[in-house]
## 1
Amino acid sequence: MKLATYRLDGSNRVGAVDSENSRVFDLAAAAGLAGASAAPFASMQALIDADDAGLDLARGLIAKHAVEPKLWADIDVVELLAPLPEPRQMRDGMSYATHIRQSARGGAARLAALEGGQAAFDAAMAKPLGDLPEVYRQLPIYYITNRLTVVGADTIVDWPRYSQVMDYELETAVVTKRTKANIKVRDAGAHIFGYTIFNDLSARDRQMHEMQGRLGPAKGKSFDGSNVLGPWIVTPDEIGEIQGLKATVRVNGEIRAATTTADMLFPFEAIIADAAQDETIFAGEVFGSGTVGNCCGLEIGRFLESGDVIELEIEKIGVLRTKVVRRDA
């Protein structure tokens, strides 16, 4: 199933998406019609907490009441929100070697440009890539990001005033279920509720500056609207293997990257298991994969302009569209 959080007639709802026909099915309304409990559909978090019983109920309601036209709404007339508007926790990884190596070169080029201008930037971008630091093969690397700055598809994100260099990042993300600590890798698949697309918007100039402090991204990654999720969550039975899906980045309709989600250094199961060592992982957390190689401007030396529309597409999931607009001074 594809599961969305959306707003219609002044209320937030949870629905099952029929992407082929661009419509969404109101699960709570269907439950009411069937005389079933609508509690699992009060929010996406409620559905995650309801686990397989909630998903089975949703599938049953669709099978029984899909013919009811009043339970469907066109995608174009609803407001798609982030599928999980307020994750219980949000972590973002560094799982792609190409991105790690190319972003290191891109960061060095940005610093070179501050002293030597465009010529220094171009020269730095032409240098061979460095080796992948061994730590990235030894254990999953991630940071905890701001779960309260999440927005959904077709959002206009205000460019933070402290930044002049805005960037996009295409990632897959997993949403967890079944609260537990000390999850084994072999069991971690049972803790995956579904997958979505993550646009990890980044204020690159601020990020490059603050990370010289050797701690991690702060305002470079944390501003209103910086964590874009959507357009919906897709359950694992519709995805199959998450690695190897076609992935495309478009900016104002121009293709900037066409690749796949293959070659994660660690699969999501290993990332979840590593994070769960003597730490409870809650149902409703989000884990980002890290940026797929070539899928951000830092890697290719092309950043965003005010008014740009970014479309991140992942096969079997959908298209996540975001517009960035510079704030007035």
## 2
Amino acid sequence: MVFEGFFRMFSKDLAIDLGTANTLVYVKGRGILLSEPSIVAINTLTKKVESVGKDAKEMLGRTPGTIEAIKPMKDGVIADFDSTEQMLKYFIRKVHNRKTLIRPRIIIAVPSGITQVEKRAVRDSALRAGASEVHIIEEPMAAAIGAAIKVEEASGSMIVDIGGGTTEVAVISLAGIVVSKSIRIAGNAMDQAIIKYIRSNYSLLIGERTAEAIKIKIGSAFPLEERLTMEIKGRDLTEGVPKTILVKDDEIRQALSETVQQIVENIRSTLERTPPELSADIADKGIVLAGGGALLKNLDIRLREETDLPITIAEEPLYCVALGAGAMLDNIKLLKKVVVD
């Protein structure tokens, strides 16, 4: 159709890392132009979207009764179809400077363990948000490409992508995922573990944003060379008043220990299922860590101790999935090999 070709001239194809905690949008030829929290604030009376992304995150825990801050993604998949659609519409318009006629082709990365129904929900949301066509690839493959792993080689490579909702472990060879495991335990589970620990040990109630800040500042997976402390504020559950306490890094490490151990076990079980020839390759090259969870202090040391393998943190762990998906916009041949629609 003539009009479709006309609009394609002005179109900017996109790659989207639709994450539980954050959504990143890569625009063809321009790189990552958007990285915002996957949150939508909705007016419960009018059902109107009040804000999306960073502005909506500022509202978490602070909204009046008529405003609800929703996280439409849970454990790497869509939990709220309508909110996800609204969020995608907002982000697509934002990267295109609010041009309403743009109908881009979109590549979306999803967890390797999601069902066909969940994949369909992702595709339908993107199409309803304005995409002209949607291609779905698996997050570990996108993360590996974004981490500069040569996925098309006849050689085994292991990627561990620790996001907000899921931890993806995969062994890749010849542009395919040979062995993989996806568990719905990652950054958000760490935040909840910190909230639970502070509540149990200090009778103090803290919010998700505070827990995330604690994880980033003093959280660790292995003892630190320098002791760290952090002053945190919350509500005293005994007296019901605001209270300030001081927490230490070893306490938070204890709080995170069970979650970190589950991630370690996930990696071990994947290694046990890896074919011998590929295991030999991984023994030489080691494991590459990606995702926000890769930034947990001393996680690489902990994994080195547990697996006796070399551990490398990707150069830009937070952006690996978006960069890998974005690379597919310029490499149709490779996209055809890795697409899972």
## 3
Amino acid sequence: MPRLPAAFRRLQQAAVVDNVGDGAFAAAVPLLAVAVTRDPRLISLVSAATTVPWLLLSLPAGALVDRYDRAGLMWRAQAVQALVAGVLAVAVALGAAGIALLSAAAFALGACEVVFGNAAQAILPELVPAADLHRANGQQFAVTATARTFVGPPVGGLLFAAAAALPFGLDAATFAVSAALLARLPRRPRPPAAAPLGTAVAEGLRWLGGHRLVRTLALLLAANLFCYQFANVTLVLLAAETLHMGARAYGLLLAASALGAVAGGLAGHRIAARIGTVPAVLLALGGTVPAYLAAGVSPDAYVLGLLLAAIGFFSSMWNVATVSLRQSIVPAALLGRVNSVYRMLGVGLSPLGALAGGFVAHGLGVRAAYPIAGVLRAGALILALPALIRRD
């Protein structure tokens, strides 16, 4: 099997560096939030602030991705993220980081991620041949999961235990290195935009609205991510208060999810090639339901870690199948805008999921959200079955 192009490997290197820092940040933020407050509603605000930008900014960001050089947008977004993470690291070191500052920093980082994430998915078909999209996406998700949820969280937990500011400083440094790598990607300026921004956004909306399969997958993504945030927003409280885990052990718990995600990224394209893209999507969706149901009654950290690994595996399989599908059927000139609509619908409910999970945990206990999320996911899959089966 031939090697993927050098430009893709540079993109992959940037993803590894960036996601190590993001993983450390993801482990450190809830630990810092728990040190400030034990109210699950306030903790959920930080998680919600990270995903709100997808609801507010995704559509204009998609139009920008189709109008301007995608590599340039990516490295500039990462440079701004380096600045934000650096300021947050200084504030944590000075003891000035409360829930309000954490939420503001999470929002700023999330806003940059909207631009970066849309551009990263849209640029991939420019870097690899169409026949290699499944393989490239599988490798990208595997290395991203390894760095973000296997390497980063244990490092973040260890650094936080040593000094609370260290994981945030690491995140700032990795953003800067990633920006430098992305600045070396080949430049492919977009053609001059003929339509106003609003018209360009409407074109993406119309395309997705008229494609039943992609529209169905977008709505399924919305349900999936709502349930993910709903269940996991208070995972740190489940680990700390119910299972009595420390900062280092919490990082290792997150790393268990990464083991499954890496396996799903590596195996996802092979599974899709063997059974078909739509059956792979159905398998990925169905596999998470029992894992969520069981996570709510997990007796110890080991069982919970195994269930999180299963969720990570099926989530990566879903990503490989659905992202490759969009990249192969959406016209290249519309890819940024269609992706932005898709992800706005998909991620837009995540803040509501995080807030709802916080209130459910406050009222019913930190275990309750997992089985509720499993039931909601099963219901969404049943509703989507007719469209998926007809397409297959």
## 4
Amino acid sequence: MNRIILLVDDDIFQLRLFEKLLTSNGYNCKIALSVDEAESILQSETPDLIVSDYEMPGKDGFEFRRRLLEQDAFKNIPFLFLTSINDKENVQQGLDLKAIDYIAKNTPPSHILSKIDNLLQAVREHYERSLSEIKGIAERLNLRNIPKNAPVLKNFQIDYFNQSFQNQPGGDFIDFIQVNDRYTFIILGDVMGKKWGAWFFSFSFLSYIRSAIRLCVFDENYSLSQILNKLNRVVHADELLSDIFSTLGIVLLDDETGSVKYAGAGDLPVLKFEEHSEELHYFKSDGILLGFSEFGDYSEMDIEIKEGEELYMISDGMIDFEINGEKKSDINLFKEKLFNFKKNKETTLTIKNRLFDKHASQVDDCSIIIIKKV
């Protein structure tokens, strides 16, 4: 994925020179002639680096940097000052504002490119070390929103796959809760939000989901609608989760009778490929996002599945794609692709791999759970 650099300078000629240099070397540049234009771009783009001139009419580069430092969403974006003034006072003022470095406008292009390449590489290495440390801590604390293995059942085969966006923790979560030899709950959810924030809250949702299921099962209550309604009321009452919502799909497998029940909250439909008729059916829940309202009025349904047939639970990243920098969603496109795979007798593993071929350019976390009746 091309790294994005935001260039800010009131000199359009200078901007175009920098833009040509960087784009010809694989960077994606956004240009702004003023601080106001730059802030407008930041409402829809989060660049990997900001390069801004010191001197500009109206709000100058120093004020721009100070404004960014006051906002959590922007304060940690690496920042370089661009200037034709090479005096120590201005350089020090920029460094005091936590700018990583500065570039003089008369610097040779090869030096500018090397400096930006090296800076972004250093930032990336630092990020990866930090990510590795946090993941290590989460593992030691047994904090995991994607399980290591699926349960082994007599009448069902479960396969799943998760690919986070840009290898960063995200809001998708999966869980398998095998309460006894007969019943297994399959969970797929997606916390609204981006990256670390969604990842953090996914553990809160998972904790509530696990507790709600265990408490209801303790009372011999296996009703998915009742579990969801109780869970939703608890989540809605939690001040920590105020304005944090999640989709949730729950499938209950009865490994004794081979029956399947399903309920959902704001999730995508569960898909089923019918072997004998070669048709792809979908089952859509009518429940609203988890935590959105105190009363969700959730319902459940039975899904008839015969030997050899498969159910597919998916997160919205599976149907998302990007066209001309704009995010699009099309579940019908996904259904058509899945239908063709099944019609051509592709194996479960091949289908899983083929579906994720396109996700080299994914725009969100992607998760799929495949449940096959055996």
